[in-house]
Amino acid sequence: MRLTRSILSFLAMVAMVIGLGLSTPVAAQQGAAINPTAKSVTEDQLLNALKPGSAAEIGGRVSIPDVKSSTLIRPAGREWREFHQGTMHLIGGIAILGMLALLVVFYFTRGKIMIPGGPTNRTITRFGGFDRFVHWTTAGCFIVLALSGLNITFGKAILIPILGEPAFAAAAQLGKYAHNYLAFPFMIGLALMFLIWVKDNIPGMIDVQWFAQGGGLIGKGHPKAKRFNGGQKMVFWSVILGGAALSVSGWYLLFPYTAGGVLNLQFWNVVHGVVSMLLIGAMLAHAYIGSIGMEGAFDAMGSGEVDLNWAKEHHSLWVEDEMKKGVVPAAMQPAE
Amino acid sequence: MARMKFLCDADRCIECNACVTACKNENDVPWGINRRRVVTINDGKPGERSISMACMHCTDAPCAAVCPVDCFYVTVDKVVLHSKDLCIGCGYCFYACPFGAPQYPKVGNFGSRGKMDKCTFCAGGPEADLSPAEFQKYGSNRLAEGKLPLCAEMCSTKSLLAGDGDIIAKIYKERVVKRGYGSGAWGWKTAYKETVAI
């Protein structure tokens, strides 16, 4: 056995030597075409050869096992920095401060939207326990995720002067862990919200009418609506689509070795940043109209029981459907 | 004050990787991290060159700009250093760096990178100069001892130069003039927004 192997390897060596002997003249021929004093490649040449979209890196071969280190220069990092330190701050500032300003203006011009004819003493069930559990799980996670995310972007400028560097770094570290772990209940909540509410959120002609009439926010009177009106459908789809974008991009940032390189991580980071800033802005409006912006709205997600007059005003068709199904509005429990 | 820079004369580099080894040994660099590496471009083709690359200690460093906890600082010699006590391992410096310098001791997913590690220009960290704590976290502080980074000091062909930018640029220019060619100061445009005019 051993003998066979050594004979084989000897034969292989002979073959190699013959092969080398045969290939030498070929190499010599090629050598005549190669100018050994040719100018060496310069960094400029290689940088100029970098085309946007194709390869944004100058790389080569390394003899150490870490393949990632074979990238020599990656100028794209500078563009990501420009985005991260400039454009994203601008988008975030406009989305969040702009929305807050808009809401303040809206509150002082339109005021709190009251229930026309005032509250009755009868309520109707709008969201059951499971609906509310899913909503608040997702919302609670979103608040922590938003704050810890904003901290990564704006904390340096706002909180370091107040807390000092060591305390801020400790807080940011905690925030990072919270962000990483709460991402999972957030994603589960997102999926559940999609499953339980998608059937009532399919856009239709009724939503066009709703928007045409200003949704009852602007102007007088209130358009008809089923379980969810046009505005709520917009909130639903921005949460579902925005949340999906955040989940996918966040997944890659959380598992960086599945993203396939730094350039992809930069891309996912851009997606994560832009979508989260816009979604935070949208959620500010959602939180406003669901609490201080409208009388009776909070009950839908608070106790789950909404006032009958509120329901008739905002979801007239839904109330009719519920009545047909035989749902009887309950008399409100007297306050104890 | 000196403005510390690295310059790799690619026409001299023989890819011996002594700089890589010297750095790992001198700074007791953790497993899996190479603060310096030698990249060979056009491997096996005419015009093949090897370049030793590490943190370039950029002017207006991108890593420092994007760090969410501001853990970077610049020494009087314009060496870009960072504090591992403040670092939260978010990975942003690694996204922003044009030279792939920031690395992490753990390759685990789920935000478990550990504290970032990179070339310190053999200048230690924020701890007291030459203290055991400084060595444990950042490696040696040769600058405090009046010496230059070991990678360049050990370079067998003196391809890798480290020191005051003006002085090493002058050495490189003299070489280029004498031998008649040069592939340029790799990374200088990206790091310092200037290059060595020849």
Keyphrases for this structure?
heterodimer; A: mainly alpha; Fumarate Reductase Cytochrome B subunit; two-stranded antiparallel sheet; 12 helices; elongated; B: alpha+beta; two-stranded antiparallel ribbon; 7 helices; 6 strands; about 25% helix
Overall description:
The complex is a heterodimer of chains A (336) and B (198). With 336 residues, chain A is mainly alpha-helical. Chain A has helices spanning 2-33, 43-49, 76-110, 129-158, 160-163, 165-197, 205-212, 230-254, 262-289, 298-301, 308-314, 316-324, and strands spanning 58-59, 71-73, 122-125, 305-307, 330-331. Chain A has a single domain, classed as Fumarate Reductase Cytochrome B subunit, CATH 1.20.950. Chain A contains twelve helices and five strands. The longest helix of chain A has 35 residues, at 76-110. Chain A is elongated. Chain B has helices at 18-27, 62-66, 92-96, 132-138, 150-153, 165-179, 188-192; strands spanning 4-8, 37-41, 49-53, 72-74, 80-82, 160-164. In chain B, 26% of the residues lie in helices and 13% in strands. In chain B, a hairpin with a 7-residue loop joins strand 2 and strand 3. Chain B is built from seven helices and six strands, in the order E-H-E-E-H-E-E-H-H-H-E-H-H. A two-stranded antiparallel ribbon of chain B has the order 1-6. The model of chain B has no long low-confidence stretch (mean pLDDT 91). Chain B has 198 residues and is an alpha+beta fold.
Tally of extended strands of chain A?
A: 5
Q: Any idea what the CATH superfamily of chain A is called?
A: Transmembrane di-heme cytochromes, Chain C
Which value, in Å, is the CA radius of gyration of chain B? 16 Å
Largest interface: A-B, 60 and 56 residues
Please state the average pLDDT score of chain A: 83
The biggest beta sheet of chain B is recorded as: 2 strands, antiparallel
- Strands of the widest sheet of chain A, in order across it, are 4-3-5
> In one word, what is the shape of chain A?
elongated
Between the first and last Cα atoms of chain A, what is the distance in angstroms? 95 Å
